[in-house]
Amino acid sequence: MSTGSPGDIPTAGHPNNVSIDEVAKAAGVSTATVSRALRGLPSVKPATTAAVLAAAAQLGYVPSPSASALASGRTRTVGLVAPAISRWFFATTLEGAEHALRAANYDALLYSLPDSQLPRKTFEAEVLARRVDAVVVASMFFSAAEVTQLRQLAVPAIFISVKQPDFPHVGIDDEAAAATAVQHLFDLGHRVIGHVSGSASDRNPAAPTMRRRNGWRAALRARGLSATADLDAPADMTAEGGFGATNALLDRRPDTTAIFAASDETAMGAIHALRGRGLEPGRDISVIGLDGHNLGQVLGLTTVSQPAYQQGFEAARLLLAAADGALLPDQTIFPTELSVRTSTGPAPAA
Amino acid sequence: MSTGSPGDIPTAGHPNNVSIDEVAKAAGVSTATVSRALRGLPSVKPATTAAVLAAAAQLGYVPSPSASALASGRTRTVGLVAPAISRWFFATTLEGAEHALRAANYDALLYSLPDSQLPRKTFEAEVLARRVDAVVVASMFFSAAEVTQLRQLAVPAIFISVKQPDFPHVGIDDEAAAATAVQHLFDLGHRVIGHVSGSASDRNPAAPTMRRRNGWRAALRARGLSATADLDAPADMTAEGGFGATNALLDRRPDTTAIFAASDETAMGAIHALRGRGLEPGRDISVIGLDGHNLGQVLGLTTVSQPAYQQGFEAARLLLAAADGALLPDQTIFPTELSVRTSTGPAPAA
DNA sequence: AACGCCAACGTAAGCGCTTGCATTGACCGC
DNA sequence: GCGGTCAATGCAAGCGCTTACGTTGGCGTT
After folding, report:
1. Which value, to the nearest 10 degrees, does the dihedral of the CA atoms of residues B35, B41, B46, B48 take?
2. Under CATH, what is the fold of the domain A20-63?
3. Strand C lies under 7 A from the Cβ of residue B133
4. What does pTM read for this prediction?
5. How much of chain A exceeds pLDDT 70, in percent?
6. Distance measured from the CA of protein residue A30 to the C1' of nucleotide C10, in angstroms
């Protein structure tokens, strides 16, 4: 802490070539003590800690993460893996995770797949080797080879949205969310309820799209409605995908009066398709999504919303807690909520 | 390269505690040679390099980035800074940047501000100290203090979208893009053209919102139209912001027949506001945005689209080239393109 | 008064790489 | 046939931390 007198030579915020040794010298202690004091270890006398902190501030000391990581084996970095960043759910969960990490002074290492095409590129976990203490995977199902690679990183990992066997999982109850959507449509009098679902390449019981599809099917059958394959239109989880699938669905089943879309982005595509056919969403055909996309309101999209930001935040927080010895819960399920807007309405009289 | 004979003890993909020394031993060379061979330095005989690579693969060697960074002073990591991830432009540019980095075997360190509220939290460049070789800043104007901090990192930095003085810049010609939008509306016969612009806290000549506002104003005046303050409605660059600003604008100036929104998300909010007032976009009032948001099509949003992904990609690529000695161009301007959809139409007959 | 204990700190050996500076031959020209 | 050159490689000193272990001295015990 400088006295403010003119002529102070070394000022805070200087070129970052100040090492721990110089701080030690300035504080009149050993480097070991500086290291301990800087990390707030209890075995340092408070007065000493204060002196070290003062010296560090005075010299503008900034620790070297590489040196620290090399010596300790811990990187204070968490890998964030997602198939794409530009889709709403991923962007939002990643933002939540990044904030949780930043708050704990951890770094977020971003990894998105080279392209969002299907079949997607395989994830090479090796790029994270020796550089992360933990991994958050956002909604991406891993092949056996990818799981093996992930395991070899030998760091805790958590999956958001997708239920990867033998890994902890943060997400929502997809079946229940789908049932909520169907119930809403059913209450409005709809009896022919189509599903614009996840892409066919996601035929995996762990994928959220698959669970939503199952939830839709089960909910229909529980109400004595038919859930035949021609009511189920697979799509990429994008607006474009929803657009195409909806058109295909309505070509096959013109008697459809309501559509449950597996994500808000596909639902928006569905709305686009309806308008293209001269149909008014919520009057001629009802559309409900699942997400809580921030643009849903603009379109008047009825949806079952899920807390995406919080899922990312919580996934990261759990991982950090695990680093402190806490044990990772197998499942962390967040609630969903029905938001009724204008894209759903009473079934037209037959 | 194993011969495939059974009984091979060490197989590729093993626990990552194999160090360069063991590879050296296995290959019968020194660690220095291994280091050089692994990095493909030219001073190693091809046969030696091959032997080293084989040994490394055989042992499942994975380099330690921390050790490499500590010894060389280069981290092979680039910081990606954005005010928020969940907004379309940021998510998309970050994705582009991440892909460029990944392709060059660089890591992307993500930094987003703790919250997207205004006034935003200050960016503490110190969190990037000693851990990145370069920084990409996506559309965020820096205060003097923040610039000072950024400078102290002593690494190259590039700004996307915002024109930070004395820093290289990747972006579009915002004035021209605004002029394109105005021209389109003018051609349709509109004479009272409002602007839903960036938030008031962005009153900075370097901010893209400010430049778009200037472009709008200049384009109106060049056509002999009035561009008074009551036609200019500041908004957060979100759908919610656009919604509120549009309502305010129409309350003030009910004679408005067209709106130029500074981003697609605000434009979507504007459309929402119109519908709320019983007005049909493109018929009663025209709306044009600026971005090329992937959901624009769903809403039939006319827009001046910009290549967001490419801007991120190019920013990262330029930085990597600079690391190889190339010099950073001051300005890299990408073209924009008018996409006419249904949210704009002829001015209603007065 | 002698002893043990423990809080507080120091010593020094790494962590796993990179790189400046030798060193070693092979090959060349005269 | 001998010094010189240069390509290819080895040696070893770090890079800036962390941490196991050793040391010190003040204090409570008996």
Report:
1. -20
2. 434 Repressor (Amino-terminal Domain) (1.10.260)
3. no
4. 0.93
5. 93
6. 6
